[in-house]
Amino acid sequence: MAVRKVRRLKFGGKLFLIFLSIIILVISIGCYFLSNFFIFRERKKTVEKVEKTEKYPQKYSFDLFMVGDALIHSAVYEDALLSNGNYDFKPMLEYIKPISSGYDLSYYNQETILGGANLGYSNYPRFNSPDAVGDAFVDAGFNLVSLATNHTMDKGEEGVLHSVNYWSKQKNVVWDGQRSSQDERDKVRIYECNGIKYAFFSYTTWTNGLETPVGKEYLNNVYSPEKVKTDIDKVKNQVDIIIVAMHWGTEYSMGVSSEQEEIANYLSSLGVKLIIGTHPHVVEPVEYINDGKTLVIYSLGNFISDQIGIERLTGLAMEVTINKVVTEDRVVTTVDKPRAELIYTKSSYYGKRNFKVYPYSMLDNSILSNYNSYYEQYKKVVSSRYSELTWGLSRS
Q1: pLDDT of res. 134
Q2: CA-closest candidate to residue 343, choices 146, 93, 110, 91
Q3: Concatenated DSSP letters for 10-55?
Q4: Which residues, at least 6 apart from 284, have a Cβ–Cβ distance to it below 8 Å?
Q5: Residue 245 reports pLDDT greater than 90
Q6: Which runs of E-coded beta strand occur in the chain?
Q7: Whole-angstrom distance, CA of residue 277 vs CA of residue 257
Q8: What pLDDT digit, counting tens, does each position of 13-47 carry?
Q9: How far apart are CA 108 and CA 278, in angstroms?
Q10: What's the rounded Cα separation, in Å, for the pair 305 and 294?
Q11: Residue whose C-alpha is closest to residue 220's, from 189, 260, 180
Q12: pTM of this prediction?
């Protein structure tokens, strides 16, 4: 009996030692992982702190170039007619393309409808222009296009639908102002350039009495305060900047109307940071409003046309830099570094007209007699509300 008892005690002692060893091992492993957890957590905090320091501020930017109306009179499209029956407007832009193609975004206003050959090409007062006009501008790097004008309905619904179909096929081109249905009109469209999200809208305050059919108001984006607010409310919390093209003002007036000022201030109050104006066919002033929050270009004038008068053959080219700065607690987007240049449409009076658009910096007296005095005259108009405007494009 005594011998068996001793063996049982020895066996029990071994179990105890094994159990104790397991406990010690578990504790050791736990201590190891716990220790490493705290070390990892501290290292993570250090890394996050370093990353946080390196992450902010984040800076983004893109450059935007802008010109005014492509007002295609019959003399312009006849000059572009080739012997094979096609049209080629590209030679008219040969001195502009090296400039416009160098920007992230390049804007112009397609004043006259690209309504399709079936409706017949036509002149004032009911314009219709060849699709080749758009081809030339896209070839020259223009990728931001305003389509809402007082001539949008010149060829009725069929003309607008052809225009929409044409622009829908242009890859990497942002356009607005005409749509083919209410559903298309109501879509939220957000674009991105170099890390900056933007929205682009085009409106006209003029229709030449050519109202859109009832129930088809989507064909031409006619301005109203309610419509603008609805559009902007849909996107304002999703984008960094809202750009609005406004077809407004008084034709052939270089002054700013009270209506333009009222609309500009209203758009600014809604959060619009850049307003690009067209319709007067002559240049108008540029200025910052609302404590510098919004840049307004009241009128870029004509880009190309066959109108009579140096003031109508002289347009404005503008460039700006859109900057976005992201810090730990906010995002700030600004329209900076506005620069300006005048442009001139040259043609002959007889035979082959040879329309060509020149920057004023390329002019001499053989192209435009007394061009320096015109430059100073129109420069004074454009700078009258913003004397700090820089003259001379960075890419010319």
Answers
A1: 98
A2: 93
A3: HHHHHHHHHHHHHHHHHHHHHHHHHHHHHHHHHHHHHHHHHHHHHH
A4: 249, 253, 254, 255, 256, 277, 298, 299, 301, 381, 382
A5: yes
A6: 58-70, 105-109, 144-146, 174-176, 191-193, 196-204, 241-247, 274-278, 286-289, 294-297, 302-304, 314-326, 331-346, 356-359, 390-391
A7: 12
A8: 666 666 666 776 666 666 565 555 555 566 655 54
A9: 10
A10: 29
A11: 180
A12: 0.87
Q: What is the CA radius of gyration of the chain?
A: 32
Please give the distance of CA 241 from its chain centroid, rounded to a whole number: 9
Token representation of residue 131: 């699709």
Strands (E), 117-194: 144-146, 174-176, 191-193
User: For residue 57, is the peptide bond before it cis, meaning its omega torsion is within 30 degrees of 0?
Assistant: yes
Task: Find where tokens 């179990």 sit.
Answer: 15
Is residue 121 within 8 A of residue 162, CB to CB? The reply is no
270 secondary structure, DSSP code: T
Q: Partners of 200 in the beta sheet?
A: 243
Packing angle, helices 225-235 and 258-269, rounded to 10: 30
